[in-house]
Amino acid sequence: MKKTLLMIAMSLSLTTFAQETKIDNMSLSVTGGYSDHLLRNGVSRLNDTYSLGLDIMSPATNNFVPVDLYVGGTYLASDLSSPEGSIWYGGLGKTVELNDKYSLRLDGVVSAIDTNVDHIPNTVDASITAALINPLVTPYVSYTKDWQIEQNGWTFGVTKDIPLSIDGEEWLQLTPDVSYYMFDDYESLVAKARLSVVRWDTVTPFIEGRYLDNDFDAGSVNWATHEGDSEFSYFAGLKFDF
Fold first, then answer.
1. Global model pTM greater than 0.90
2. How big, in percent rounded to 5, are the helix, strand and coil portions of the chain?
3. Of the candidates 42, 38, 46, which has an alpha carbon nearest to the alpha carbon of residue 182?
């Protein structure tokens, strides 16, 4: 509970800091959906989970310090009336243009995760990510430090947004992403692809298929609820932009 209150306070502080100038440029989105496995750092943290999240972002042009600022929180439940926890985060990022085709994106994020799963403790982690944005694919690398479950490590991945047109109009976007996690006590491969309907300005339906491959005994660890041994998972929902 203390960690949740801490992250709420951080969210309010960052949001206030972002209001120094041009508040009209801030973006707000609400995302609701369902996943059979809530994946985090390449492993399942919750099973059969409904989620409802709020994300707020203030671009660098708004802020006294020229970096993007973002905060958010997600409510998690096994059904619509039984809360199973929440995720809160705050972060900052900066895009540095290298030339007309390549940019370097740097992000730092602190997250607090509260769950009601008996053998998985509430935790706080921090991550630093670097990505090379370019017209082909975007490779990225991230390091994550966790203070409770003591699972720290590296993530290496590639991703790309692919617009898909129907009758000359952009209706869909396909976003494949492949990532490999190398943490203290496990390694995991996650290959996923999200198909989004981007025809409308305010609402975006999406469905995401994931392939998960790791190998450990979920009953003997405190950082996962399920072993994904070469299996498929999914996440589907709606995103509303304001």
1. no
2. 10, 65, 25
3. 42
